[in-house]
Amino acid sequence: AGIGKCVATDLARRNARTILACRSRERGQAAVEEIRAATGNPAVVLRLLDTSSMASVRAFASAVLREESRLDVLVNNAGVTGLPFAVTSEGLERTFATNYLGPFLLTNLLLG
C-alpha cells in the first residue's frame, strides 16, 4: 500500500520486471494482481520478506541473486512506527530491525 505500491506501479508501467517484497502473502498477491491489471505488465511478482527477520532477509537476497540475472533498482520502503517494544526471535528490537537492520543487510547482500 502507499508509497511502495505507487513506486511498484510506476516501475511496472515502465515495463520493468518488478518484485514486490511483502510480509503478507495475501496482501502482496492482491497488490501484484492490481498492478498487473493497471499496467498490463505480467512481470510483476511477489516474494515474501520480513525485514525484522535477518533470516528472512538472507533467504530473500539469496533467492533474488539465484533467480534474477540482474538487479537495477532497489527501493527500501518497509517501515513501522508506534509498535510496542518487542524483541525478535534473533534478539533484536523489532522496530530497529525492521526499519534499519533489515534494509541495511538486504542492500549489502544484493550489492554483489
Brief write-up:
GO terms for molecular function: oxidoreductase activity. The chain is mainly alpha-helical and 112 residues long. The chain has helices at 2-13, 25-39, 54-67, 94-110; strands at 18-22, 44-48.
Provide structural commentary:
With 112 residues, the chain is mainly α. It has one domain (3-111): NAD(P)-binding Rossmann-like Domain (Rossmann fold, 3-Layer(aba) Sandwich), CATH 3.40.50. It is 52% helix and 9% strand. It contains four helices and two strands, in the order αβαβαα. It has helices at 2-13, 25-39, 54-67, 94-110; strands at residues 18-22, 44-48. The protein has a two-stranded parallel ribbon. Helix 2 links the parallel strand 1 and strand 2 (44-48). Helix 1 (2-13) runs parallel beside helix 2 (25-39) and helix 3 packs parallel to helix 4 (94-110). It starts with a helix and ends with a helix. The relative contact order is 0.17. The mean pLDDT is 96.
